[in-house]
Amino acid sequence: MADQLEQVDPGELVRAAQRGDTVALCDVLDLVTPYVGRVCGAIALDSGPDAAQETLMVVMRSLGGLREPAALFGWVRAIAVREAVRYAERDRRAWPLEEHTLARLPAPGDPELISDVHDVLTRLTPRLRAVLLLRDVHGYSEEDAAALLDLPVGTVKSRLHRARESFRKAWQS
Fold this sequence. Notes:
Layout: H1 2-7, H2 10-18, H3 22-44, H4 48-62, H5 72-94, H6 111-114, H7 117-122, H8 126-137, H9 142-149, H10 153-172
Helix pairs in contact: 2-3, 3-4, 3-5, 4-5, 8-10, 9-10
């Protein structure tokens, strides 16, 4: 099935789904699910699966309003980032604040924990983590990241600076 989906134009699938073709809607969801999982998992961490599920529900409900079917992945990315940040922030409010500070870094010289990128990323706030991942992992420009996060470019630049600095300090500890 995955091989068949790779050969189909996503825009065609979206248009068919918008016309009410439920098989095409399922194919669209199958097509974007792995991508949604990667985006949500990187930002929402443990709540990644929940954020991914919510993203897919929003995609399913809102697909009819997508004006540019060829822009499917950009549209889905924006929804996934928004939902992932929302879930990550919800989780952050549920945990004590001291568990989210960079002060709780692994002891210097503990190579197993220090080299774990995931561990260092979890110490960033969801908003900083989202900007860092969009810019440095996914390669988006600051302007594109700002558009995805619905933020001014200056805010993205300052968050990116703080995220990089926090990550660098945590990594070098």
